[in-house]
Amino acid sequence: MAASWMAPAKAVQRSACSAICARGGTANRVLARLVPQFLARLTLYPTCRCMSFAILRPWLLLVGFVTAFFAADPAKAAPRPATPTEFVVVVDPGHGGENDGCESPDGTVREKDVTLAMARQLRAELADLLPHATVVLTREDDVTMTLAERAAFANRVGADLFVSLHANASPGHGQTGYETYVLDVRASTLEAARTARRENDGALPAPGADDPAAVALRQLASSAHRRAAAMLAALVQRAQGRRFPGRVDRGVRQAPFDVLMGVRAPAVLFEAGFLDHPDESRVLIDPRRRAQVVRGLAEAIATYFQQVHVRAGMGTGTDGR
User: What's the CA dihedral at 61, 65, 68, 74 to 10 degrees?
Assistant: First the structure.
């Protein structure tokens, strides 16, 4: 079936390049990243710097162009205004099932259990602060989920916000503090790169290194969704600082977390503390102290909703759908 479409492939390639280049360089790279199922191979057009491809499923070309068109214009990717009844928050308890994550110093508490407990607490807190919003967990039990499955789930339920919960660890077990990550193709620090490598369960280039998907991811990272995510991340850090003035605020950081890449909504990854540190582990394990962490998260999300969605809706007079 694919062979029958190879003859006109050159014409299609040139036509695709012209159409996509008309929208700017962003679109062709995003197109190649977001609709890989109809790309048979990727090469670089040296003259126009566009991705060329042989089409396996021609009917998906239209989908690709539509995706690229919207990705090329950050204004079209802006978080949509939403009423409380439409606001969907997807909470992702990190790890689970076969993936334990990190452990407490004595090895009795696993990250996957801490994140699930936090997610359940966060859902309950948001029920109080945003009673008409919909809060959905990517996993309700101790099950194995791939990072791609988590992102796909968020997109399937129409997430307006995606929050992935994690506990941190360090090589010497001496680090403390909390931090919130937004997506970027380059890690902001070597330490951020190590954190992303651990959470991604795979290799990660050092800060400053690019891979073939780097340009596409950078365009996504500079979109309106990333700006909204950065706003939420700052709110999260601020709320944690108010509740835990004695803890280390490690700030908002950037790294190429796989779980954030495929989510079509503002997305952040929150590292609540270092589970492998003797003092920090007590904050995450004790239900009452952990509840304070979660309460700060919920307050940040509620503030984000007021600042981004309610004000946008009041300004446009529409729900943005």
Answer: -150
For the beta carbon of residue 161, count every other beta carbon within 10 angstroms: 27
Query: How far apart, in whole angstroms, are the C-alpha atoms of residue 204 and residue 43?
Result: 23
pTM: 0.66
Q: Tell which residue, 43, 50, 53, has the closest CA to residue 13.
A: 53
Classified as helix, coil or strand, 88 is strand
**Domain match, 189 and 244 both:** yes
Same domain, 27 and 137: no
Structure tokens at 191: 């330490």
Q: How many structural domains are present in the chain?
A: 2
pLDDT digits (tens, 9 = 90+) for 270-281: 999 999 999 999
CA 113 from centre of chain: 21
Q: How many CB atoms lie within 10 A of CB 95?
A: 26
DSSP 310: I
DSSP 3-state of 250: strand
Residue 46 or residue 236, greater confidence:
236
